UniProtKB/TrEMBL annotation:
Organism of origin: Bartonella choladocola
Alphabetized UniProt keyword annotations: DNA-binding, Transcription, Transcription regulation
GO molecular function annotations of the record: DNA binding; DNA-binding transcription factor activity
Protein's recorded name: DNA-binding transcriptional regulator, LysR family
Domain of life: Bacteria
Family statement: Belongs to the LysR transcriptional regulatory family.
Domain HTH lysR-type: start-end pairs: 1-61
Length: 296
């Protein structure tokens, strides 16, 4: 592989992370035509098509999936090396204010806080956990982390981590006394443990199967604003809970909880780091690159 192919491969990886040629061009600060040219040259050199393109969507072809799977780890190591070397030269420093919801903080940020502090000792990270929808510009934040559908359209956004999946769960004992639901309409006959984002809004139960999308408000048994309390309550056979799978994967694997209606709960696009369309500070660039690399 020559240096030009490596450059094209890095552009290819950025397109995969951003989800479009235009978003990749913004992140790389190059013209969209340059991204198209690089992908075309890479496809030409490999004699394969890397993306399935339509006027409304962009997805990886089978060859593209193989390429990103086989090269992502090596590219991540290269990027980590560049970031570490750049940090020693640039002495990236200053206060960095990030607003994030609890789930993103728990699964994507918290596991690597020590490593980030070691890599960038001169960055003061002010991490605010807030499940409300916050105007990060008015509130004085450098960036936010939210599910993609909750990111303002005028922001620049980069995906962090993989797709998410919510699961509908209850205990085996609960299902000894209640029928197993097979369709969202069945939930009207069940008790629900609801999660409250803030004072005004509870988590809406949304289901999808093929082209069908349904929103359900099941009978409330309990409403709490803590994921841990949702888990505690469902383990006490209180009712059904609809929660990110990451929170309950251990309980599921141990047989303490049972997943139902899995055909109605497909994965969806996960979390994004987003920030205003303006010149990026070095500290923010370091934060974004570091945590995206760690969550590949």
């Amino acid at each position: 592989m020559d240096r030009q192919q490596l450059s094209h491969l890095l552009i290819f990886e950025t397109v995969v992370e951003e989800g479009s040629f235009r978003a990749a061009a913004k992140r790389l600060n190059i013209a969209p035509s340059a991204v198209s040219y690089a992908i075309g040259k890479l496809e030409e050199s490999l004699d394969v098509q890397l993306f399935n393109r339509t006027t409304r969507s962009l997805g990886l072809s089978p060859a593209g999936k193989v390429l990103i799977r086989q090269t992502a780890s090596a590219l991540g190591m290269i990027e980590d090396g560049f970031n570490a070397a750049k940090a020693t030269h640039d002495n990236v420093s200053g206060l960095l204010r990030i607003n994030t919801g609890y789930s993103a903080a728990k699964f994507l940020i918290s596991p690597y806080l020590g490593a980030f502090a070691e890599a960038y000792p001169d960055i003061i990270l002010d991490l605010v956990i807030d499940n409300r929808f916050v105007d990060i510009v008015k509130s004085g934040y450098d960036a936010g982390i939210r599910i993609h559908e909750h990111v303002e359209k005028d922001m620049i956004a980069a995906k962090i981590g993989g797709d998410l999946k919510s699961v509908l769960v209850a205990t085996p004992k609960y299902f000894e006394n209640h029928p197993v639901p097979c369709h969202p309409v069945d939930l009207k006959n069940h008790r629900a443990i609801l999660y409250r984002f803030n004072e005004q809004r509870t988590y809406v139960w949304e289901f999808e199967k093929g082209r069908k999308k349904l929103t359900v408000t099941p009978p409330e048994q309990l409403v709490v604003n803590s994921h841990q309390l949702v888990i505690d309550a469902v383990l006490q056979h209180t009712g059904l809970a609809y929660i990110f799978e990451n929170y309950v994967k251990d309980e599921i694997s141990q047989g303490k909880l049972v997943k139902v209606m899995e055909d109605w709960t497909p994965p969806f696009s996960g979390f994004y780091i987003y920030y205003p369309q303006q010149k990026m500070r070095a500290a923010l660039r370091a934060f974004i690159d570091f945590f995206i690399a760690k969550n590949r």
